[in-house]
Amino acid sequence: MTNHRKVALLDVDGVVADFTGHLLKLVGSVLTTEDVNVWQVLDLLSSSEKKQANKILNEPDFWISQPVLDGAREGVAKLGEHFDIYWATSPWIGCIGWDDARRGWLKKHFDVEHDRVAILSCKHICAADLFIDDRDTNIEKWSARNKGSAFLFDAPYNRQVAHPRMTWDSDIDAIIKSVLIRTA
Q: Which domains does the chain have, with CATH numbers?
């Protein structure tokens, strides 16, 4: 008899990688991550910052150099004790070499093998027992199609949405227990 572990599906940017903070720093913005209260951070930038951001985002170096969010390594490790972890990440279409940069970043910071990474924008087609993403529309679409538990990774740009949320400071053990009980 095969022992099948539960599956956790995690987004990258805004969940384990500090996309917003890194971009704001590189363009020299006076904004902080707490100031970013809309999904599209580029909409909040000045025209010169936006031009610079578009250039930066089209270079693999941006994606390779993103910092890991505080607590992400420990939280992912704890999830990994109970779940097989897979990654669903939306590509940045304008960046040639983005796929390799993203896979390299995940390998470097989380020791992720290439066959554990799905590069796609339609994350809702991926089945899992647990889904974590910072974009509310991804959570809504995924929840409508799947039976597992979905958590919105808390950020200022998604706080207007009422959905179970988490951070890496959350009680990860309680989240794990709730998912395992629900899917038993």
A: 6-18+67-182 (3.40.50.1000), 20-64 (no CATH)
